[in-house]
# Entry
Amino acid sequence: MRLITHNMLQCHVKGCNANNFPLDLQEVVLEQENAELNEDFLRNMLGKLEYDALVSTCQKLNIHDLPLTMPADAQENLEFLKTLHHVILETHIKSGNMVCPNCHHSYSIRDGIPNMLLAEHEV
# Structure
């Protein structure tokens, strides 16, 4: 699972409607996988990313490549776009858990695939 995917996931347990994003990553195994740089894709994603949550998640994973705030010239800043590309598209979570900060429900990640399915009583 790429970090871009994690940045879009939140808890969907019944009644868990507040403080359910971002999911806390625990016991994760990271892997780097090269991906082709697509500047247009990154520019389009800038407005869709929860940047503060991304930076917070990266810091918890000991990834300190991103600036704390998105640069004002992010659309044109090629060095920033390359760094963002590396973080969100080349950093993969191979295994671990995502835990809701509100209800503490745990979603497992196995072989890079997050299991977001809920038991019937959680829906």
